Amino acid sequence: xxxxxxxxxxxxxxxxxIETVPNQGYRFAASVERSVRMCADASRDDTLAPFRAFIxxxxxxxxxxxxxxxxxxxxxxxxxxxxVVDELSTTxxxxxxxxxxxxxxxxxxxxxxxSANWR
Length: 119
Hints:
about 120 residues, mainly alpha, about 40% helix
């Protein structure tokens, strides 16, 4: 919060933009005004397209059915998996069991990678 306060600075009358509210948190203390956008809607859509694609892709992943059937993992893929785990373990000085702990990165559907050799 202090970094945000430093970035915003202070108002013309030396008041902070973000105030601490005891036992509640923080509030934005400056006045806020609605402004009219000067750019065309097409430009905004072009700017937002990659973010919309990401959100749609994320939504598609979240709605995959657990009954989806995945291909069996090959020995070459297992070899690659083991190499990646070894490299991450060595480079980041982690135990191999720690490499797949991130809840989003390591998420698998129940049948996904069921035949993979995770060590």
